[in-house]
Specification:
The chain has about 850 residues and is α/β, with parallel strands linked by helices. Its cofactor is pyridoxal 5'-phosphate.
Length: about 850
C-alpha cells in the first residue's frame, strides 16, 4: 500500500530481562550525556558500522535490540558487571550529598527547591529542544546544578518538531526540514496521576476555548526537567499545534507558547510537586523574557489566598530572578497590548487579575518604546527583585538599555548585576583532555592537539560527503572529499547562529587575502565553518550561501568547509579539534558567547573581538583580541567591516600562524603549547558552569529565598502600602539648602587631599518621616560640563529637629581621598529594610541646581 499514512503512531519497546532492567533507568537519565562510562556502555550495544549521525542515543539503542541480542547480554557476565557498576554509580550520584548539601548553613539559608524556566533546553542531541546558545546555556545550567546538588526543577516546552534540521541546496541556499519527534522515542517519561491517567494542565483561552497540555519529564541527573506538550487529543487543532516548533508561528502563536511556558509552567510545577512530594520552589528563575508570565500566574495564586494585587506583586518579586540575554531591544519579544489583554483578561487565562495592572507591567514607553506594545523584558524586570546580565560588559549594556525603568538614577546604579555564563566541562571536554596529567609535557600537549585535529578531519570529511550527496552530487563526483583538510594544518573554527551581528562572512571581506592565507606555501590555514540562519531570515540565509559558494571553489575547497546542521553532536567534535576559535561579532552585541569557552576547555585558543566573556577574561596568553573600529569609522558599516577584517587577516598572518608553525628541534611549537597550557590551567576554571551556578546560588538564589521568606502576607501588605505612600508623597520631597565646608564656600578654592569637609543640608520630606528616606552626599569626578562620574555616596544623618518651615536638617562628612577636579551634591532616596536595592522604586530627589547645568559644589 503506497502512500498510505498511519492514523496513529506508537513505540514498541523491548521487554528487558530482569538482569538488564537497569539499562532502562540509565537510558532515561540524561546523565549519560556527560558521563563517559555510561556512554561507552551503550555504545558497546551498537552493532558494528558507522556511528549514528546524532551520536549516542540510549533510548534508540535499546529500542533496536532484538531478543537474541538481549538474551546474549543477559548471559554476559562481563557486561552485567559493567551494568551493575554504572547503575550503582548513578544511584550514588543521585542520592549522596553534594556541594549544596555539604555547604555550611545550607539547611537554614538555602532554598529547598528552585524553578528554572527557559523556552529551550540543549541537554543532548538525543533531545533536540534547542536552537542555539540560550538553550545550550540552559542545559548546562541544569547539568551543573545537578552536579552541585542544587535542587532545581527545570520547566520548558516539548516541541514536536524541535528546531529545524538544516541542509543545503545545490546553489548553497539553506533548506529546512522539521522531523516529527515522537516522545516514545525520546528519553522522557509521561507524568501520571495516582490512577495512571496522564497529568494535565489547562489554560482558559478567549471564546470559551481551552489549551490542555501533558507533562513529560526528562531526568537531567538529579534535576527533573518538566516539558509541556500541547499535542493532546483534547485540544482543537489550533491549540494542539501550540508546541509544534521552537520559535515558530506568528505573534498569537508565540504568545500562546509563552503563556503555556509561564502560566502553564507554574501549574506544571504545582502538579509535579503534588504528585512527587517534592518541596515547592521558593525561588523562580526566568531565563529570558519568554517565560515572564510565570509571575502573573503566581500573582493570581496569591490573590486566591487573600492578597491584593500590590501585595501579591511584592511577594512574587521577592522570590524571582530574571536573566536577560539580549544586548539589543530588537531581541526582545513584544506583543500587541490588545492581544495580551484579550488572552489574559476575564475571558482568558488569568480571571480575577487586573488586566490594566498586567498591561502596565509590560509598558515599554519609559524605554522609549511604543505605547501600544507589551514588552516581555520590561515585564520580566518589573516582576523580579533581582536581575542580571550574562557577562560584565553585558551587565553594563543592560543597565544602560533598561535605565528608563529606574528614572532618576544613572545607568551604573540600575539594579541589574551580572553573572558571566559558564559551560559544563563534562559535556564539552574531549575524554583525552580530561585524561591529561596535572603537568603534561609540551610534546604530550602537541600530540594531543594533533589527535583531536585528526579526528575532526575524519568527521568533517564524512559530513561533507553526506552534505554533497544531499545537494545532488553523485558518489563518483566526490573523490576530492577524501583530501579535504589536513591534520597537520592550523585549523580555525567558526560555528554559531547566523544573525547579521555575528558577521559570518567578515572573513570573506577580502577574498583574495583569505585565499592567500588558506593556500600559504609555508603556513597554510584551514577553516571549518557551521551555522544556522533563522528560517524567516533571508538575510542570514544569503550570508550562508555566500560562505558556501566561496567554500565550493575548487581552488580552496580542501582548506575551507561549511558543515550544515550545526548542533550539539557536531559541536562535541568541533571544539576539541580546532586550534583556534574565531568570533567576530559587532561589539557590544554578543551578550556572552559561550562557544569560545567550550573550545578553551579543550586547549583551543581564542581569536575574538573583545566582546562578551572575552572582553572580561582576555589575556595575551589565552589568545588574540581582534581590534575594533571606533569613532567615525564605527559609524560607517562598510569602513568598519573593512578595518576589522583587515585586522583579522593581519593577526592570523603575522601572529597566529607563525606561532603555530614555529617548531623547535623536537618539532614542537613551544610558544603555542605554552598558550595551550595557560588556556587549560588558568582560563579553564573561570569558564565553568559550576562556577556560574555557585554564583547564582550565593548571589541571587539565597538572597531571593531570604527575601521571600521575610515577606509574610502581613509584611507584603505593609511593604506595598509603604511603596504607595512614598510614591504619592515623593513630589513634595525636596533638597532646599546645601552647605559644604566653610573653607570650600568659594568655588575657586582648592581642597587638600585627606580633608574631610562637613556637608549640611535641609530636606523637605512632605508627608514622609526620616525613617522613610536616606539622605546622601555624593562625590565624584566632574567633566567639562560639571557632570558627576565615578561617584561615591556617604550617608548623612539627621542633625536636630525640623526648622520653622518643617525642613529636616542632615549633616555628615566625606573624605577627599583622590586628587583632581571633583564635585559634590546631595540626594534623597527611599529607604526600607525590605528593598533589595535603593533604586528599586526609581525615585530620587536632588538639589534643583543639579538637575540643570551645574553639579553642586566643585572641589579642586
Amino acid at each position: 500500500m503506497e502512500h498510505v499514512k498511519a492514523i496513529r503512531r506508537f513505540t514498541v519497546r523491548p521487554v528487558l530481562p530482569d538482569t538488564l532492567r537497569p539499562l532502562a533507568d540509565l537510558a532515561h537519565n540524561l546523565r549519560w550525556s556527560w558521563h563517559e562510562p555510561t556512554r561507552a556502555l551503550f555504545d558497546s550495544l551498537e552493532p558494528p558500522g558507522p556511528a549514528a549521525p546524532s551520536g549516542t542515543d540510549p533510548v534508540r539503542i535499546l529500542g533496536a535490540l532484538e531478543a537474541p541480542r538481549l538474551a546474549a547480554l543477559a548471559a554476559d557476565q562481563d557486561f552485567l558487571a559493567r551494568l551493575r557498576a554504572a547503575a550503582e554509580d548513578l544511584d550514588t550520584y543521585l542520592h549522596a550529598p553534594r556541594w549544596y548539601q555539604r555547604t555550611e548553613g545550607s539547611a537554614a539559608g538555602r532554598p529547598a527547591a528552585l524553578a528554572y524556566f527557559s523556552p529551550e533546553f540543549g541537554v543532548t542531541a538525543a533531545l533536540p529542544q534547542y536552537s542555539g546558545g540560550l538553550g545550550i546555556l540552559a542545559g548546562d545550567h541544569l547539568k551543573a546544578a545537578s552536579d552541585l546538588g542544587v535542587p532545581l526543577i527545570g520547566v520548558g516546552l516539548l516541541y514536536r518538531h524541535g528546531y529545524f534540521r538544516q541542509s543545503l541546496g545545490r546553489d548553497g541556499w539553506q533548506q529546512e526540514q522539521y522531523p516529527v519527534l515522537d516522545p516514545g522515542e525520546l528519553p522522557v517519561t509521561l507524568l501520571r496521576e495516582a490512577d495512571g491517567a496522564p497529568a494535565r494542565i489547562t489554560l482558559a483561552l478567549p471564546g470559551g476555548r481551552s489549551l490542555h497540555a501533558h507533562l513529560w519529564i526528562a531526568r537531567v541527573g538529579r534535576v527533573p526537567l518538566l516539558m509541556l506538550d500541547s499535542d493532546v487529543e483534547e485540544n482543537a487543532p489550533g491549540e494542539r499545534s501550540v508546541t509544534d516548533r521552537l520559535y515558530g508561528g506568528g505573534s498569537e502563536h508565540r504568545l500562546l507558547q509563552e503563556m503555556l511556558l509561564g502560566i502553564g509552567g507554574v501549574r506544571a510545577v504545582r502538579t509535579y510537586t503534588r504528585l512527587t512530594g517534592t518541596p515547592e520552589p521558593e525561588v523562580f528563575h526566568t531565563n529570558e523574557g519568554h517565560a515572564g508570565f510565570l509571575g502573573l500566574e503566581r500573582i493570581r495564586e496569591l490573590q486566591g489566598e487573600g492578597l491584593d494585587f500590590d501585595s501579591a506583586l511584592e511577594t512574587v518579586r521577592a522570590g524571582t530572578v530574571f536573566t536577560t540575554h539580549t544586548p539589543v531591544p530588537a531581541g526582545i519579544d513584544r506583543f500587541d497590548r490588545s492581544l495580551v489583554a484579550r488572552h489574559l483578561g476575564e475571558d482568558g487565562a488569568l480571571p480575577g487579575v487586573d488586566t490594566g495592572r498586567v498591561l502596565a507591567l509590560g509598558d515599554e514607553t519609559p524605554l522609549g518604546g511604543e505605547p501600544g506594545v507589551f514588552n516581555m523584558a520590561a515585564m520580566g524586570l518589573r516582576l523580579a527583585q533581582r536581575a542580571n546580565g550574562v557577562s560584565t560588559l553585558h551587565g553594563a549594556v543592560s543597565r544602560a538599555m533598561f535605565a528608563g525603568l529606574w528614572p532618576g538614577f544613572d545607568a551604573d546604579e540600575v539594579p541589574i548585576t551580572s553573572i558571566t555564563n559558564g559551560v559544563h566541562a563534562p559535556t564539552w571536554v574531549a575524554p583525552e583532555v580530561g585524561e591529561l596529567g596535572p603537568e603534561p609535557t609540551d610534546r604530550e600537549l602537541w600530540e594531543l592537539r594533533r589527535t583531536l585535529r585528526e579526528r575532526l578531519v575524519t568527521d568533517v570529511r564524512q559530513r561533507l560527503r553526506a552534505s554533497w550527496r544531499q545537494r545532488g552530487a553523485a558518489a563518483a563526483e566526490l573523490g576530492w572529499t577524501d583530501s579535504v583538510l589536513d591534520p597537520d594544518v592550523l585549523t580555525i573554527g567558526f560555528a554559531r547562529r547566523v544573525p547579521s551581528y555575528k558577521r559570518l562572512t567578515l572573513m570573506l571581506r577580502d577574498k583574495d587575502r583569505l585565499r592567500a592565507l588558506l593556500l600559504h606555501p609555508e603556513r597554510p590555514v584551514q577553516l571549518v565553518v557551521a551555522g544556522k540562519a533563522h528560517p524567516a531570515d533571508d538575510g542570514g540565509k544569503r550570508l550562508v550561501q555566500e560562505l558556501v559558494r566561496f567554500a565550493d571553489d575548487p581552488r580552496v575547497r580542501h582548506r575551507i568547509v561549511f558543515l550544515p546542521d550545526y548542533g550539539m553532536a557536531m559541536a562535541r567534535g568541533l571544539y576539541p579539534g580546532c586550534d583556534v576559535w574565531l568570533n567576530n561579532p559587532l561589539r557590544p552585541l554578543e551578550a556572552c558567547g559561550t562557544s569560545g569557552m567550550k573550545a578553551a576547555l579543550n586547549g583551543c585558543l581564542n581569536l575574538s573581538v573583545l566582546d562578551g566573556w572575552w572582553d572580561e577574561w582576555f589575556e595575551p596568553d589565552f589568545g588574540w583580541a581582534i581590534p575594533t573600529a571606533d569613532g567615525a569609522a564605527a559609524d560607517d558599516e562598510d569602513r568598519r567591516d573593512d578595518l576589522e577584517a583587515a585586522a583579522l587577516y593581519e593577526l592570523i598572518e603575522r601572529q597566529v600562524a607563525p606561532r603555530f608553525y614555529e617548531r623547535g628541534p623536537d618539532g614542537v611549537p613551544a610558544g603555542w603549547t605554552a598558550m595551550v597550557r595557560r588556556t587549560l590551567g588558568d582560563l579553564g576554571p573561570k569558564v565553568l558552569a559550576d562556577r556560574m551556578v555557585r554564583e547564582y546560588v550565593e548571589r541571587l538564589y539565597v538572597p531571593a529565598a531570604t527575601a521571600r521568606r521575610a515577606l509574610t502576607p502581613d509584611r507584603a501588605r505593609e511593604l506595598a502600602t509603604w511603596k504607595a505612600r512614598v510614591r504619592e508623597a515623593w513630589p513634595k520631597v525636596t533638597v532646599d539648602h546645601v552647605e559644604v565646608g566653610d573653607d570650600l564656600a568659594d568655588e575657586l578654592a582648592d581642597a587638600e587631599l585627606g580633608a574631610t569637609p562637613v556637608v549640611r543640608v535641609r530636606v523637605a520630606l512632605g508627608a514622609l518621616a526620616p525613617d522613610d528616606v536616606e539622605v546622601q552626599a555624593v562625590t565624584g569626578r566632574v567633566d567639562a560640563d560639571d557632570t558627576l562620574a565615578d561617584t561615591r555616596a556617604v550617608p548623612l544623618k539627621p542633625a536636630g529637629g525640623p526648622d520653622l518651615e518643617g525642613r529636616q536638617p542632615y549633616a555628615g562628612t566625606f573624605e577627599l581621598d583622590r586628587t583632581g577636579t571633583f564635585g559634590c551634591t546631595v540626594r534623597v532616596r527611599p529607604s526600607h529594610p525590605l528593598l533589595a536595592h535603593p533604586a528599586e522604586l526609581g525615585l530620587v530627589a536632588l538639589p534643583e541646581e543639579t538637575t540643570g547645568e551645574g553639579a553642586g559644589v566643585l572641589l579642586r
